[in-house]
Automatic annotation (TrEMBL):
Lineage: Bacteria, Pseudomonadati, Pseudomonadota, Betaproteobacteria, Burkholderiales
Alphabetized InterPro entries for the sequence: AAA+_ATPase, ABC_transporter-like_ATP-bd, BCAA_Transport_ATP-bd_LivF, P-loop_NTPase
Family, similarity comment: Belongs to the ABC transporter superfamily.
Protein known as: ABC transporter ATP-binding protein
Species the sequence originates in: Alicycliphilus denitrificans
GO biological process terms, semicolon-separated: L-amino acid transport
GO MF, one example: branched-chain amino acid transmembrane transporter activity
Amino acid sequence: MADLLNVSGLHGGYGPVAVLHGVDLHICAGEMVALIGSNGAGKSTLMRALSGIATVKCGQVVLEGRRLDAMSAEQRVAQGLIHVPEGRRLFRSMTVEDNLLMGAFRLPGGARAQRAGLETVYDIFPKLRERARQDATTMSGGEQQMCAIGRGLMAQPKLLLIDELSLGLSPRLVEELAQALMRVNALGVSILLVEQDVGTALRLSSRAYVMDQGRMVHTGPSKALASDPRVRAAYLGAS
Ligand SMILES: Nc1ncnc2c1ncn2[C@@H]1O[C@H](COP(=O)(O)OP(=O)(O)O)[C@@H](O)[C@H]1O
Ligand SMILES: [Mg+2]
């Protein structure tokens, strides 16, 4: 499989605060890859650096052969790199459908393309179709997460960065979201997934990276990592 994303030697953080210390990572077209590691390891910061919110001091971010690291966050969205941030961050006092449409406002194709996008999202998350006219922030946490992922999908991503898929959700909802993510991935969208529940993260992904103190410390097929005691050690660091 061809590389979709190639990250090499990435250093960065927040202004003068260095968090990432030489991160390498690659994602092939169509892959779902997990990023795991204890609290404070730098997973969110890496996602922010990829999407253009955190500072990149040096290193390269290449998507389909194009350098993204000098681009603005908005330009990266146009290239197909979409970040679903931790905490969902839906727009208040707006319906589910209007929140979804916010993800598509840059797209060419007008109302017809937007309608097609909504249909795709509603097929993946039937609950959002039922709740289309409801104020998005009055929904349950799981439904808000569906809406946040749906909004990301509306931008027609090549790569979705999903930070903390299941934070605060019940096991039943986590399973529902896991099934939906597999449907998203089956559409050909590549996914980089940060997920506290290592079991879920490794079950959904084909490969995984383990991060610690701003560095990648292990990587390999998810099946192999699931029984790797070093991964368990990194996981236990979280609790
Ligand atoms: N906005 C910020 N400004 C400065 N430091 C931050 C900021 N956000 C996170 N950090 C620091 O960056 C490090 C990595 O945090 P983070 O990327 O959130 O880790 P993770 O997502 O793996 O839990 C932590 O030491 C954290 O305190
Ligand atoms: Mg985080």
